[in-house]
Every structure is written in C-alpha cells, then in structure tokens.
Write a structure and sequence with these properties.
Strand order of the largest sheet: 2-3-1-4
CATH architecture of the largest domain: 2-Layer Sandwich
CATH class of the largest domain: Alpha Beta
Number of helices: 4
Number of domains: 2
Order of helices and strands: EHEEHEEHEEHE
Number of strands: 8
Structural class: alpha+beta
Radius of gyration: 19 Å
Largest sheet: 4 strands, antiparallel
Distance between the termini: 33 Å
Strand content: 35-45%
Helix content: 25-40%
Length: 179
C-alpha cells in the first residue's frame, strides 16, 4: 500500500505582475508538485498565492521553499512552505451552497456583521472576497461570500443577510449552488 502523499501549504506574498501565476505554477509542475486547493488574488499592487500541494516522494518543504525563493518572478517575495497538518479533504461545511454578493458604499464593520449572521445560522464561510472598485468601475465596495448554509436554515439565514444589507443601504444578490 502506497504512503499518502506529503501535503504542504505554499504561501507567497509579493508584488503583482503579469506572469506571476504562470511562473509559480510552472515551477511547481516542474518539481512534480500536484496542486490541490489553490487561491490567487491581486491585493492592491501586491498579490497573494496560496496552495495546498502534494509533494512528490523525496521533496521536502525546505527544498521547495528555497527553490521558490530563487525564482526571478518572486524576487523580494515573502515565501513560506510548511507541512500541512490538517486533512486536505474538505468537510461537508466546506461545500459551497450559496454565493452572496453585497455591494454599495463602503460600510465599516460590514464583514463582521455579515459573518455574525452566518455564524448565528450555523453557516460556514468557505470563501470571502471584499474589494473597493475603482471610480472607472463604479466606485462601489463589493463583498462576495461563498458559503455553506444548512438546508433547514438557508431561508432564514438569507433573509437575515438581505435585511442586514438593506438596513445599511446595500444591494444583496444571492445565487444558489457551488462551483
């Protein structure tokens, strides 16, 4: 029986640039690394890449981290590669049942208020993205949640989210289903 693959968390924070994901992904592929859950986001003029990676036999986290630090595309980056001690397979609450977008003017505490609503109904936030759009894009603040909501609480939870957004003068759109 083959041993389970070694799983590592690769986390990179650096300046955003064209070809960044390509450079990282190509290097990981060449090293025999299999990407599992992976995220990338441009954050202002910076960028964040994080991934659960299955390491091939013989590749250790220190070697992978050193090799990533030598990539030209990652010059000046903060790079961290560590063993991943959690089960890499998602729980039921990691499944996305609904996508919710709340948009309008920037509201101090918006994420906290909506996160409290989700917690109140036993919903799990699987993904969160909040972004201030440029004036050319409308200047709105947009917050998107991908959540797991237990079926028996979904209607009440979504109504409370919509009411909370409405009380702040924000628009709320809901889409059922996952990725």
């Amino acid at each position: 029986m083959a041993a389970a693959p070694s799983i590592a968390l690769v986390s990179i924070l650096c300046a955003d640039r064209v070809g960044l994901v390509s450079g990282i992904a190509d290097h990981l592929f060449d090293a025999g690394v299999n990407l599992r859950d992976t995220n990338f986001a441009a954050l202002g003029s910076g960028a964040e890449f994080s991934a659960l990676c299955e390491l091939p036999e013989g590749l250790v986290v220190e070697t992978l981290e050193t090799a990533l630090k030598e990539l030209d595309v990652l010059a000046g980056a903060q790079i961290r590669v560590v063993p991943y001690s959690f089960d890499p397979n998602p729980l039921e609450t990691g499944r996305v049942t609904h996508r919710i977008a709340v948009s309008g003017g920037d509201q101090l505490g918006l994420v906290a208020r909506l996160a409290d609503v989700f917690a109140q109904y036993g919903a799990n936030i699987v993904r969160l993205e909040a972004r201030k759009l440029s004036q050319a894009e409308g200047g709105l603040y947009v917050t998107r949640f991908a959540v797991f909501i237990p079926a028996d609480r979904a209607d009440l939870c979504l109504a409370t989210v919509a009411n909370t957004a409405g009380s702040l003068g924000l628009e709320c759109k809901v889409e059922e289903g996952g990725i």
